[in-house]
């Protein structure tokens, strides 16, 4: 997929199907350049491309390894929900349900997000936080 949209799609961090790269905008709106480029896409070009790929050493290729690019990280950040942003950007360690929701409402007000109902908020953060006996704690991913 190719797009000129800043956030072209919802991308999850575990999604290996897409490589996200930024391209130069130096030829933006340059139809002559792209017409010339299209003329080079001859059968001979495709034969050479095929030969190249058929001789490429892929012995160390790992299809499960997700290529990291700055653009991929930017897209992942842009796709974060307000709940993920709240958890990432606030400094609480553990809070009871009421205090957590109060912190969330304050965060939303400060950053201009619409506040979800308490029920919706808790449903969305229950998988993002550790919950024991009504106390919500940030997950420790370093284990």
List the helices and strands and how they pair.
Blueprint: H1 31-39, H2 43-55, H3 70-78, H4 82-89, E1 94-96, H5 97-111, H6 118-125, E2 129-132, E3 135-138
Antiparallel strand pairs: 1-3, 2-3
InterPro entries: DNA_primase/NTPase_C
Protein name: DNA primase/nucleoside triphosphatase C-terminal domain-containing protein
Pfam families: Pox_D5 (PF03288)
Explain what you see.
By secondary structure, the protein is mainly α. It folds into two domains: 70 residues, no CATH class; 58 residues. Helix content is 43%, strand content 8%. Strands 1-3-2 form a three-stranded antiparallel sheet. Strand 2 and strand 3 form a beta hairpin. The chain is elongated. The mean pLDDT is 89.
Keywords:
143 residues, 2 domains, elongated
Mean residue pLDDT: 89
The succession of helices and strands, N to C, reads HHHHEHHEE
The N- and C-terminal alpha carbons lie at a distance of 36 Å
Provide the structure class. mainly alpha
Short description:
With 143 residues, this protein is mainly α. It has helices at 31-39, 43-55, 70-78, 82-89, 97-111, 118-125, and strands at 94-96, 129-132, 135-138.
């Amino acid at each position: 997929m190719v797009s000129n949209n800043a956030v072209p799609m919802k991308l999850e961090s575990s999604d290996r199907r897409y490589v996200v790269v930024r391209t130069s905008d130096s030829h933006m709106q340059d139809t002559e350049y792209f017409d010339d480029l299209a003329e080079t896409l001859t059968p001979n070009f495709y034969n050479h491309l095929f030969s190249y790929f058929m001789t490429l050493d892929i012995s160390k290729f790992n299809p499960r390894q997700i290529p990291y690019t700055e653009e991929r990280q930017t897209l992942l950040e842009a796709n974060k929900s307000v709940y993920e942003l709240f958890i990432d950007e606030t400094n609480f360690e553990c809070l009871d349900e009421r205090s957590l929701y109060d912190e969330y409402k304050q965060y939303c007000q400060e950053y201009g997000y619409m506040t979800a109902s308490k029920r919706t908020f808790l449903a969305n953060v229950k998988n993002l936080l550790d919950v024991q006996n009504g106390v919500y704690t940030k997950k420790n991913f370093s284990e």
